[in-house]
Each structure stands twice: as C-alpha cells, then as structure tokens.
Amino acid sequence: MSDAPATSGAGLRLARQARGLSQQQLAGMAGVSRQAVSAVESGHSDPSLRVAIVLARALGMTIEELFGPGEPADPVQARPIAQSVAGAGQPGFAEGSRVALAAVGDVFVALPLSGDNVSPAGFAPAGGLVADPAAAVGGAADPAAAGRDPSGPHNDTIGVRPIGPPRSTLVVAGCDPALPFLQTPLALLDPPVAFAWWPCGSAEALRLAAAGLVHVAGVHPGVHLGVHPGVHPGGAGPELDDAEVVGFASWREGLIHRQDTKVTSLTDVARNRLRLVNREPGAQARTLLDQERTRRGLAEGDLNGYHTRAAGHLQVAAAVAGRLADAGVSSEPAALAYGLGFVPLADERFELVLPAKQAASREVQALLKVLSSPWLHAQLASLPGYDPASCGERLS
Questions:
Q1: Which CATH number applies to 167-396?
Q2: Residue 94 predicted with pLDDT over 60
Q3: Alpha-carbon distance 191 to 204, whole Å?
Q4: Which of 18, 152, 9, 16 is nearest to 79 (CA)?
Q5: Domain 10-67: CATH class, spelled out
Q6: Which residues contact 40 (CB under 8 A, 6 or more apart)?
Q7: Mean residue pLDDT across the chain
Q8: Rounded to 5, what percent of the chain is helix, strand, coil?
Q9: pLDDT digits 0-9 by tens, 342-391
C-alpha cells in the first residue's frame, strides 16, 4: 500500500493524550503495533493510508481532523464497481476519471462518477482520480469472467489517486432511488459517515455484497430468500456468508405509461406495438415483466424494445415521460413523480442485506443507527406511494 503524504504526528499525540490513552492502548484499539504509533507521533514515519484510517477510527475522528488535508496522495489499489459484463470495458475508469473512493472491509472500492451515477441532481464530489485503469475490464467482482486468476494479488484492481484522505463511507448497492436519503442523517453523526450509492438490480447488488465490494445490498426479498452460508446469490459468483436483513420501505410496482397512451395491460403494449423500456437482467422490475409476459402468453419478440435497459426506476419513468418510450415496468412512486399512468402488478418490499463480515464495521453500525431517524422516516413517508413502516425493522 502506498504511503500517505507526510504529516505531523503532533495531532495524533494530542488526540491520544486527550482521551487518556497510552500508545499501547491506542495500538490495540487500531490493530497496529505500538512501534507504529510511536514512529508516527515522533515524526520518524508517515502512516500508510490504511494505518491513518484505523488510527482515526479508533480515536473517533476523521483523517482530516487527525492529520490535516496534506498533499495529493500516491495512488492506492481499489476494486472497481461496475455492471459485470464479461469482455467489456468498464465505462468511467479511463485515466483521469473521477470516482468515489471508499474502504469496504480490508479493500478500497471505486465507483465511477459518470452517466447515471454522476448524481440525481448534479455533479457529486469525487474521492479520487483513476491513475492506472489497466485492470478495469470485464466484471469487477468476477475476475474469472475477464480471464484473470481470482486468487492473484490485486488482479482485479485499478490505481486511484485520492483527492484528500478517503473518508469513512457507507457503500450501498440497490435500485431504490430513496436510498440517498441516508446521506443526511449519516452526515450528522459524530464523527460523520459519508454515503455512496451504486444503483443496480437486486441480483447485482447481492453479487457485489458477496464479493465484498459493498457494505449493504438493497434487494427485493424474493432474491435473497434462503441466503445462508454457502449459497451462491444469483446462481453464480462468490458465496455470501450469513447475513442480517433489515427493512427499508415498500411500494407497488407495475406498468407505467404516459397519460395520453391508452394502456390497461401488457397485452395493450404488445398489440399496439408501443415502445417498451426494460430493466437489466436480475432487476425485480424485469422479473415482474417476464412473469406478466408469460402469464399473458407473450414472447420477447412481441414487445417492441424488450431488450432495452434502463438503470433504475426513475430512469424508466424519465424515458417514458421524455417520449423515448411509451411504457415500462417501474415503481408507483416513480410514476407519480413524473405524472405518469400506473397499472399495478405487485406489492414489493425493499430490504437491506447486511453481510456478516461487514456487520461490525463503523459504516454498518452507523446505518443501523440512522435507520431509526425520525427525519428519515418522515422523508420516506413524504414520497407518494412509499410505505416506510418496515424501515429499520430487523427481519428473520
């Protein structure tokens, strides 16, 4: 691991002494040697990025508070998060690309800040810039799909040059566009925790969690039924260890359409050759569409646009509202947000899967704390079509 920029150990010594800790006690809390703490405090050694993070966490501070912003850091090795498409390059990881950078367990992960991931409302602050994109090919969490040895060191990482020290960041994957509400209560914690969201379908979110690339997978319950040690989520990929499931919200899902388009069922879409916008394989909306298609005796070729892909509920609604498509399957809250017609097909729950290996992390503990936030519950309840009654509920 590359070293962090030169820092003064005075801040570390003062923070430790203010808490009445010896060097040995701080070292034990951070999981480093006493000699490492002594070397940093004396100015004889600069902490590596990882040591700086664990020392700051042990003292309940951010790295900026403990060591100051410093100079631009050397690149660190991070595992890129992107949709797993074997043999395809990953957009957003060219040299100089802006990425969100976060620590998940013992590894850094990089989320591209491009396309739909820039931000729902504008540009998002970057945690780093890609310095070495050579490994950003194929499936980030599936090195075998790209012809790489899964056991090799850093065989699926890219070089990222941090813009300032990485912050403690909760990384969540899932399709619910209300997940960014978590950012506000997390930022109010002392010390604060940042938030990074990777929008994707349930199967992809579960795969990323199994690969150790996110702290939390947001899924619809049908996807993770029977998650136990040794179960392969989505039918392939790394195993997901035992996990805890926590409620978040529920809503109705169904066929959305413009108000000037007469649609009462999927049969109308097929009969009138209306343009459909679909979701990616593994998304619950696509599964629901396929179930309805089968029930009505329709083939994939009967639906104009069946093989199109949109990244999430709001993207489907935006495509329909913008007349890029005539219909699609999405959530009722998304339809209401864009003033679209809605034909209900199913009641859906959205839950958070917390892998056991992440459960004790500061980021997951912060999530469990803010899920009971009255502000969060009020925000979820303010969205037409959302039911936050299960938010924070521990589920079996």
A1: 3.40.190.290
A2: yes
A3: 31
A4: 152
A5: mainly alpha
A6: 7, 9, 12, 46, 47, 51, 55
A7: 82
A8: 35, 25, 45
A9: 999 999 999 999 999 999 999 999 999 999 999 999 989 988 899 999 99
